[in-house]
Amino acid sequence: LRLLPQQRYLRTERAEVSALERKRNVLCCLITRILKVEKQLHIDNLVFRVIDACQKGELRPGVQFLSFCCHSVDVLSCVLHLLNQGYLRRQEGRPQVLEY
């Protein structure tokens, strides 16, 4: 038997997956933090506020993180994930309004 060294592209792929998981975790934290304060918010306003926080690198006053680029698709994907997990819910009769 001959053992081959681990391929470089596999390490790169794992690093990318890890970076995406960290990004998703930060986005989920931002979404829940914003909705905890606001209690309910239109989904468009939530997306804009999360994107703004990502660009500023601010989780809340006094708590900074490395800013990163995020798009509305990223935020909406995390919103759907949190809805499926039961952390968020849509308002009865107004599905565009989210509640924590």
UniProtKB/TrEMBL annotation:
Domain Cullin neddylation: 19-96
Entry superkingdom: Eukaryota
Name of the featured protein: CUL9 protein
Native source organism of the sequence: Smithornis capensis
PANTHER family: CULLIN 7-RELATED, CULLIN AND GALACTOSE-BINDING DOMAIN-CONTAINING
Gene: Cul9_0
InterPro entries: Cullin, Cullin_neddylation_domain, WH-like_DNA-bd_sf, WH_DNA-bd_sf
